[in-house]
């Protein structure tokens, strides 16, 4: 097990990470355990995946049951069109589409949330891999997707 201190919304959090297999880990944050699988960066097709947790409560308040929530995340700094960011966005993992947060014809910026995907009981914000215009949304809410399924097609150029 390895222990790390990470910062979420400006607040420090201690996480424990235990390697289960070469690409599967058990992560404990605030007493909540989740199992995560690493994906090769090229397999992500430029999508930014950001699992989210609720910020800690003020001292003296009772903590409700922990549950992951979707919170806007700042994308890491990078060029406007990162390597591998093509005209399509594909599913980085199997799961269920919980929300479509964009529309056909929308001009989107890199890092802007386009979809929410639930995988292994965690909500993942799938964000635009590059600046562009949405040409087609290939999925609907409550739809099951497999790894690599097309999610969104962007206009060329």
TrEMBL record:
Biased amino acid composition, Low complexity: 59-72
Key word Hydrolase present: no
UniProt keywords, alphabetically: Biotin
Spans through the membrane: none
Domain (Lipoyl-binding) ranges: 84-155
Location of the region described as Disordered in the Swiss-Prot/TrEMBL record: 59-86
Signal peptide: none
Pfam family, one: Biotin_lipoyl
Taxonomy, superkingdom: Bacteria
Keyword Mitochondrion among record annotations: no
UniProt protein name: Acetyl-CoA carboxylase biotin carboxyl carrier protein subunit
């Amino acid at each position: 097990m390895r222990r790390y201190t990470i910062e979420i919304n400006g607040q420090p959090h201690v996480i424990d990470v235990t390697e289960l297999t070469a690409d599967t880990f058990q992560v404990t944050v605030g007493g909540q355990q989740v199992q995560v699988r690493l994906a090769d960066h090229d397999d992500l097709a430029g999508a930014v995946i950001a699992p989210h947790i609720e910020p800690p409560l003020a001292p003296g308040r009772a903590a409700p049951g922990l549950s992951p929530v979707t919170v806007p995340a700042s994308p890491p700094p990078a060029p406007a069109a990162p390597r591998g960011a093509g005209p399509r966005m594909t599913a980085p993992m199997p799961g269920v589409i919980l929300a479509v947060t964009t529309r056909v014809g929308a001009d989107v910026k890199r890092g802007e949330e386009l979809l929410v995907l639930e995988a292994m009981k965690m909500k993942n914000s799938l964000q635009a891999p590059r600046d562009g215009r949405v040409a087609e949304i290939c999925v609907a809410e409550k739809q099951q997707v497999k790894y690599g399924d097309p999610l969104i097609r962007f206009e060329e150029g």
